[in-house]
Specification:
homotetramer, Beta-lactamase, two-stranded antiparallel sheet, Beta-lactam/transpept-like (chains A, B, C, D), glutaminase activity (chains A, B, C, D), Glutaminase (chains A, B, C, D), hydrolase (chains A, B, C, D), EC 3.5.1.2 (chains A, B, C, D)
Chain lengths: 312, 312, 312, 312
């Protein structure tokens, strides 16, 4: 397995290499998401993992430079971009409690009058996107600009085929958006909102890109260029929401096994934060029944076990 | 406000003093639980806070030596005692995901065939007690022995008036127990189980007692006498479950504000863990609408803000 | 109160007159639906009631010739029109059980995988409209033709202002339609379907028109012109669904008080069937908290009490 | 198939004979309830059907004189006995709407604060029994006296083996009772209540017995001895509740197919009422997945089709 590195300080590289080897010997990778063709076509044996240190050093193992579909991972960045602009008023429109229900459920939304439980279930991400759209008139464009700047990769882009597929199979998200609109919790036209939302989900990026882009959460709110995106308190808030709500209906299990703030996507990627120390991104397309990458969770579990870097 | 100390190293004492002073100036303390007389009678202006360092040093402010009703805080210890005996098999009978519903809800239990979501909702604690009872024939006695040993306070005891009140108003817990029994998830006679359960909840202890008794979770599983109760991995698991599920339906909010594994009780107490560093217990009887101590959450929020000791 | 009649045999006219007088003396009429302006503007003191005998004789009291917004009453006719074409296959796409939930709830729909409980909750009516649309390419037009033919009133028409208002406030129905589409239970484009659906709901008709149009259900499936729309068994089925599901979450109460198959609309109208004997329509815009006309239910209650014509 | 008759006017006997012959040729009878041994042991090929005319004439086909376990059928009589004593106040403690959920569900009970939806789900029957117990101090004894008097069969009795089995497997009902007690909707001690409830369910009676005992509902409230149990309006109410709620989660389907007020039990019996005309009881132990007798529903369906006696 080829190892590429970009700078000289690679504290965790031996750990990554050991993990990659172990994962390579592990059968059973789950199945890629199959609701859109572009995801279903990925090879479940693919695996990559990257670490970004606080100073922007990034290195990895396996296919850590291979772009994949970020999907729900972008919900973290959209949340941060809106929170930076709007502050605590956001929390009147979306909660920060675990949902206890599948990520696209309408049940809880109905019982709680159109206020989604947290920003990482689809309903909550739609609300966050809607509010960022109101404030910027181009939520997806803002996201893309941010990811490019933080990763230092100007080639990052939307995958229009993926976005088109999402739209074609977007009835569930359309239902969520109209439902919240019926409670007055969506400001923009639903068609416009869904277009913004599906484009965000479609961004293709690599483990290297995403580990770097997540760096501001390990640096307590500071961007790659040294400017502040979030206050220290806000960065702590985003990490807390990631830990309690970041992996769909398996957040408790993830906290229990991995013990780090993390966010997964159905493209098979997972980002994770060691506050004050580093960020990680792992990718393998095969998912468990809850929508999280099988090899990805296993790799992060090994990482915190081997390094003792769990927050617990 | 009188300060009592027991040993010489009191790193966080100035912080506690500052917090106590701030809390003293803050109006609005919520209302004590009113479903049983012994809780309703407590003065919502009461406040105490203690820190226990890893070596057993304990100190505090306010009424940190005053016994109060531990209530759901004991769920942490019962969980640890059963996990130490049973290991991972326990997790086939109780989940470790946040519930997204009030702590005594039957709804989720029905949808998930009698398997409670986590050990800290009442249904889950009943299952843990049932399993500890099967293994020890005296779950409540085991709990009391453990608390006495860890706190070094042999005077700790059940409050029989509280236990009797709980039993008299225990229809909801009886419903939960019978309901799970109908799914085959309770082994003991329901009457026996409820007696054990209500006695556990009735234990009276002070902030000092509870901060000390929680120490094994900061020491990665090691008891006060240096013997091991839990493996390092199990201690991490209990901390993870506390962070994601420890404060009823406000776990996300608690993680967001405090950022530490914690467990609250309707007696107004909250324990919290700074892994590898120290444990805390705060007490003030006035509760918010979710059942957590108003001044207790505020004090812990200030503690992590002032010390930077949040896990995030 | 002026009485108009159209033919000579008016068996129930004295009963209607007595009811109208009693209703006239009764204060408390509920409140008109207020979610669209055209409904909110109606006077809750308005009242009309008509009886149509099997031979097409129709007579009434009060404002029985005044057109009002039919709303959900049209669900009965759309159901009959599709059932006549499709037969029992329809019941694979919509159930015929009471819902036990408010008429526009998404909860049950989610637990039952996109199959609505019955044709009279909004989700079920959307499915029926979708299927009639697939078979006729103009579901709303078919409905209008049918109502004109049965009532003998060629002036019956859609109320375009009402349809436009429904569309403007149609997020909840859009959510329902997209949600069912995500389960594969909607064939047509959601925008097309909603247009058809809202036009149906907008039809304006009088008590006389609707009592006549309902006649086929009292004649065991035979239309006004003597041709058969439904088999005897199908007519019985529609009546059974009306009795168990026709008045939102108050079907049990309606069966208990009135004891006739009936269907209400938020415009304040209610149709009812005495199988083999006659049909009724009553209208008064003030609604109770479950969406049924207060004076309408009271009038039908009195009718079955005075005539002994309840099915029980 | 032997036919026994007791008096001279047997209007529907030829219809019963035809139905018995058809049923005899029909394979597929479902499976007996298996949660207690006494029910599981019954032969699913057993079949009996009886008609009782208004004057007390009773006749039948098949095993119409064979006693079977009445189970939930007794809920009708308990309801009538309490309603006769308590009147409309009962309806403040139990609703009369279909449940839309399985008969022993706790979900709806929780959302509606401990008020069961109707008297025929288990929770509702527990409330009715509790109230009758408060008024008579022997609810089960009152029921037995009533059934003996109406059927003219002094040998009718509880089946103590069945009652003991129900108690042994009674956790779900204990959960329901405690849960409602927690809302203040149960007056008696739960242990006493459950004993009364399970004894009621255990009564063994034949089709002949039950058809006769149901007669007061066809006679608009008049008992076999000519005295009045219920007002005409109350009898209508009970029939309405039977039609909308009498067959668990299949009430809509039963109304649609049979079109008569009816009540089933998991012993395989079903009673039905043709108001003003006659009563029926059919029995065959094999159940469908909703808990209703397969041959029983089929026989009643044929009866209303052949006689045209559906209420619709």
């Amino acid at each position: 397995m080829a190892i590429m590195t970009t700078t000289s300080s690679h504290t965790f590289l031996p750990v990554l290499e050991r993990i990659a080897e172990e994962i390579g010997h592990t059968p059973g990778r789950g199945r890629p998401a199959d609701y859109i063709p572009a995801l279903a076509a990925r090879d479940p044996r693919s695996f990559g993992m990257a670490v970004a240190e606080l100073d922007g050093t990034v290195y990895g193992v396996g296919e850590w430079r291979e772009p994949f579909s970020t999907q729900s991972i972008t919900k973290v960045f959209t949340l941060a971009l809106d929170l930076a602009r709007e502050g605590d008023e956001l929390w009147e429109h979306v909660g920060r409690e675990p949902s206890g229900n599948p990520f696209n459920s309408l049940v809880q939304l109905e019982y709680e009058n159109g206020i989604p439980r947290n920003p990482f279930i689809n309903a909550g991400a739609l609300v966050v996107t809607d509010r960022l759209q109101t404030r910027t008139e181009d939520a997806a464009g803002q996201l893309l600009d941010f990811l490019r700047a933080e990763s230092g990769n100007p080639a990052l882009d939307f995958d229009h085929e993926v976005a088109a597929s999402e739209t074609a199979f977007g009835d569930r998200n359309a239902a969520l958006a109209h439902f919240m609109a019926s409670y007055g919790n969506i400001d923009n036209d639903v068609t416009v909102l869904l277009d913004q939302y599906f484009r965000q989900c479609s961004v293709a990026a690599s483990c290297a890109d995403l580990a770097l882009a997540t760096g501001f959460l390990a640096r307590h709110g500071i961007r790659a260029d040294g400017t502040r995106l979030l206050t220290r308190s806000q960065a702590k808030q985003v990490n807390a929401v990631m830990l309690t709500c970041g992996t769909y209906d398996a957040a408790g299990d993830f906290a229990y096994r991995v013990g780090l703030p993390g966010k997964s996507g159905v493209g098979g990627g997972i980002i994770a934060v060691v506050p004050g120390r580093c960020t990680l991104c792992v990718w393998s397309p095969g998912l468990d029944e809850r929508g999280n990458s099988v090899a990805g969770v296993a790799a992060l579990d090994r990482f915190t076990t081997l390094t003792g870097l769990s927050v617990f």
